[in-house]
Amino acid sequence: MSISDWGSIGEIVSGIGVILSLIYVGVQVRKNSQDVRDNTAQQILDLFVTINHSPDELLLAAFQKLYSDKPLDKHEQMRYSFYLREQLETYHSAYYHYKRGNLDQSLFQAVEQRIKNNSRFPQWRGLWKISGDVYSKEFRDYVNGLLQENA
Predict the structure, then answer these.
(1) pLDDT band, residue 48 (cuts 50/70/90)
(2) pLDDT digits (tens, 9 = 90+) for 120-138
(3) Within 10 A of 134 (CB to CB), how many other CB atoms are there?
(4) Do 65 and 71 contact (CB within 8 A), yes or no?
(5) Average pLDDT, integer, range 84-106
(6) Rounded distance, CA 147 to CA 80, Å?
């Protein structure tokens, strides 16, 4: 074998190495993308757990009144408003990640159902009406569409 033959063999081996490297990089990118989606889903779930974990006495009283169709006093209204704002921020975050492909559709459907469930309360709709403009137009249009469906 001549040096030229060895050079050709070296080029073939080098080409195979490049192809294998590209396959490896593709596998790693795919795995990293799945890890990002998994982490995003976990963060959204953690936000819901944090918001709903061990509500204080004032929030519990507000919930009891809401489910009994009784009016809230001003302190309960304020506490419930803070709770709703936390919910809205979480919904907005979930929507953002879903639209960018970082949140699984089935998990987002659960978030969507939460929005629909909460929107049946006049207090939720009232808060959305006065504070919805702080969210992205895309999210506002989405929530307003859900509200129209549930009207």
Answers:
(1) low
(2) 888 888 889 988 999 999 9
(3) 11
(4) yes
(5) 87
(6) 20
